[in-house]
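WARN retry 2 of 3 for item q-0093 after timeout on previous attempt; input resubmitted unchanged.
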Amino acid sequence: MSYETVVEQVRKLPESCLAAVSNYLDFLLYQQAQLKMLSLVESEEEFDAKMQKGFLDMKEGHVTPLNESFSRIKGRFS
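OK item q-0093 returned
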């Protein structure tokens, strides 16, 4: 189904239905956002493994100075 088809269907509705259509679109957008967030969730085992690796890196001196870290972060978002 194309966007044009959906737009035409919405145009055929009376204005009294537009609030319901808008609410349903908000619901669909919310569902899509939730699906995207699921890929960011990691298991407790994955989290623990990453934390352990970070802790070992710190103990072994594999660290980046704070100022350099902030410079790298700033560079990625500017």
